[in-house]
Amino acid sequence: MNSLVITRTGTHLTVQDFGRFHYQHLGVSPSGAMDQRIIKELEKIIPLHHNQFIEFAYVGPSIKVKEGSVKICVGGNCNMNIQKNNGTQIMCQPYKSINLFEGDELNIHNTIETVYGYIAVEHGLGLNPCLKSFSTDTRAGIGSINRPLKVDDTFEILEDVSSWDHLSIPNPTYKKETNFKVYPGPQLQFFTDQALQSFISNTFTISAQSDRMGIRLKGEAILSSESHDILSEGILPGSIQVPSDGQPIVLMRDIPCTGGYPKIAILKEKDISKISQLPPGSQITFDLQTIY
Amino acid sequence: MYFKGINSYGDRGMVLDFGDDSSKSISIEVNKAFSTISNLGLPLLNIIPSFNKIVIIFENSQIRDQNKEKITLEMSEIKSQSYKSANKTWKIPACYDESFALDLKLIQRLHQITKEEIINLHTSESYYTYYIGFMPGFPYLGDIHSQLITPRLATPRINIPARSIGIAKNHTCIYPKISPGGWNIIGQIPFDIFDLQNPNPSLFLPGDKVSFYSVNHKEFQQIQKKHFSINELIKEYSS
């Protein structure tokens, strides 16, 4: 038996995977890792991740091997070290496999100029899926673990490490993008040409009130000439909705399943991961792509 | 036919448009299309019906575009197709006791009617399940009797008890679990309507017919004690 215990939670620590699908018509959000590029990269080092990744935001957790040994890999741009059982401290890097033995503690300090980071553990975390996915939606209380992780949460990993060989990949270089090409939203016609012009020429600032449900933007108000209240309809992650205060919200992975605000635009799927990594205070702009 | 056409929604989604209005007859057409497309076995990730739209999401734009034609064809034939609804008809026990009906007094005052009249009006209609949304398993049911039409609470409650029955505008609903919300609470049902352990977790599906019958507090507790599973509830309360 091998086991891992959370000794410090950091912030927003949850279990995530590539998303929970086929249940949105029953009010269940897709959820899944905010930055799906990273868990895809981690797959190259820990192919036997069993779709059970730990996601953290800003401040990472500390995890300790309680029993046995495990092989893990951290993804994202972050600082970390290992406190060995014998008292020594060693530095370690993301995107390189790490072998941890009984008593070893991995401390992930913080993400650098980004928001989210991930931990993949070989053979997964010993969890059972919930509605065919391991992702956590803390607002709806759905998931293998239906809440954020806490200190003393323990994961039992039945299988032993397959090989102690070190594997690594070059750190993926994700160019920081702040200009997003967006497609017209279903209620584009709710906005006058003038409002659309402000939407694409203004700069918006990412607010600190952003989370897994949505990234709130601050800027000059974008007002609808028709209404900010529509009959609720199905919504997709990446949609940019505009409530009556005119401050757009980019809907993210823990999306409410239906929404009643007009959607001016929608991000490309691959840009959802990119925008998720921009910390509060980042300034962004949009370009409206009119032809599909 | 209310169906207007199919529009793209981002790089991997589409919207089936049934106009801008909302009515039971629009919803019946939406749910017929929802059921038909769901059963085509297309490689879609989610299909989400609402009052007058169906949103479908695919893995990427290529798969979306490959399937657009099939869906267009299906929509053009849907009118002539005979439709065998798999929907259920529910008779759900409801307790309108004051301990559960947090806003009954408010509605009595607003509409100048008695508690008994409210219960009679709420239990005399068979409601249509427009769609499931807002939170897992939450059914939008309607339409309620015109004498019961009530605006949402001016200040939403922080905690509405699980299983509460609400009314707002011309709809009625059941809260699957404790939640903040602005619906006027008029009673409670004695069992859960969403079960994460079940592969079909929601008791109600879009298009189901739902009516309520009044039970007293003692009967309510007796049913509550049985801790019915979703499958037992289907046997006991639907046809």
Characterization of this structure:
By secondary structure, chain A is mainly beta. Chain A has helices spanning 36-42, 193-201, 269-276, and strands spanning 2-8, 14-16, 53-57, 62-67, 69-75, 78-83, 89-91, 98-101, 105-111, 116-121, 154-157, 179-184, 204-206, 214-218, 233-234, 239-241, 249-251, 258-259, 263-267, 283-288. In chain A, strand 16 (239-241) and strand 17 (249-251) form a beta hairpin. Chain A is elongated and about 65 Å long. Chain B is of the alpha+beta class and 239 residues long. The two termini of chain B are 29 Å apart. Chain B has two domains: 5-77, 2-Layer Sandwich (Gyrase A, domain 2); 89-237, Cyclophilin (Beta Barrel), CATH 2.40.100. The A-B interface holds A 19, 21-28, 30, 130-131, 140-142, 146, 183, 185-186, 231-236, 238-239, 256-258, 266-269, 292 and B 7-13, 15, 20, 22, 34, 45-55, 57, 60, 131-138, 177, 194, 196, 199, 201-202, 205-206.
Task: Produce the secondary structure layout.
The complex is a heterodimer of chains A (292) and B (239).
Chain A: E1 2-8, E2 14-16, H1 36-42, E3 53-57, E4 62-67, E5 69-75, E6 78-83, E7 89-91, E8 98-101, E9 105-111, E10 116-121, E11 154-157, E12 179-184, H2 193-201, E13 204-206, E14 214-218, E15 233-234, E16 239-241, E17 249-251, E18 258-259, E19 263-267, H3 269-276, E20 283-288
Chain B: E1 5-9, E2 13-17, H1 24-38, E3 44-49, E4 53-58, H2 61-77, E5 89-94, H3 104-111, H4 115-124, E6 127-132, E7 139-142, E8 157-160, E9 164-168, E10 171-174, E11 179-181, E12 184-188, E13 209-214, H5 217-225, H6 230-237
